[in-house]
Write a structure and sequence with these properties.
The chain is α+β, with helices and mostly antiparallel strands. 38% of the residues lie in helices and 32% in strands.
C-alpha cells in the first residue's frame, strides 16, 4: 500500500422520477426524467476499504424518490423541484449521511438530460475543510502509531 492518507470514490445513481416546475408563473405539466446523480466522496485510506458502505447509504436515500412525482415528496411539496433545488437538497442530505459513516462528500452532480448538469462542490466550504483536517489528523496519528509499533518490535 502506498502512503496516501485518503482516496476518492465516484458513484453514479439513476432515479426515475417525474416533476413539474413553475414557468412564467404557471405550473407546468408533470413529466418524467431519468435523473443521474454523481457523487465524489473522500474517504480515509485503509488496507481494505468497503466502499459499498458509501454506495449503500446513497442508494437508500435515493430509493425514497424512485418512481414517484417529486412534487409529492418532502421538501419538494413546498420547494419547486428544479434541477438546482433537487441537487442542493440531495447534496445536503447525502453529505450528512456520508459523514456518519466516515466519508466526506466532495461534490454532487445532477443531470436531468445527458446534456445538462448542475454541480455543487463542497471543497471550499469550511465544514469540508474541517472534516478533511480532522480525517487527516486521525489517519496521520494511526500511521505514526503503526511506525512506532514497528520500531519497537524491531528493537
Amino acid at each position: 500500500m502506498d502512503n496516501k492518507l485518503s482516496c476518492e470514490y465516484r458513484f453514479k445513481f439513476y432515479i426515475n422520477a417525474s416533476h413539474s416546475i413553475i414557468i412564467n408563473g404557471k405550473q407546468g405539466e408533470v413529466h418524467p426524467h431519468t435523473w443521474e446523480m454523481m457523487l465524489n466522496i473522500l474517504v480515509e485510506r485503509t488496507d481494505f476499504m468497503e466502499f459499498n458502505v458509501y454506495e449503500q447509504v446513497a442508494q437508500e436515500f435515493f430509493a425514497q424518490y424512485q418512481d414517484c412525482t417529486l412534487n409529492d415528496k418532502k421538501p419538494f411539496d413546498t420547494i419547486v423541484p428544479t434541477l438546482e433545488n433537487i441537487v442542493d437538497f440531495f447534496g445536503q442530505e447525502i453529505g450528512k449521511r456520508i459523514r456518519e459513516v466516515g466519508g466526506i462528500l466532495m461534490r454532487i452532480e445532477g443531470s436531468e438530460t445527458p446534456t445538462r448538469s448542475y454541480v455543487v462542490s463542497y471543497t471550499d466550504h469550511s465544514d469540508y475543510l474541517e472534516d478533511v483536517q480532522h480525517q487527516s489528523e486521525e489517519a496521520l496519528s494511526r500511521v505514526m502509531d503503526d511506525m512506532m509499533d514497528r520500531a519497537l518490535a524491531e528493537s
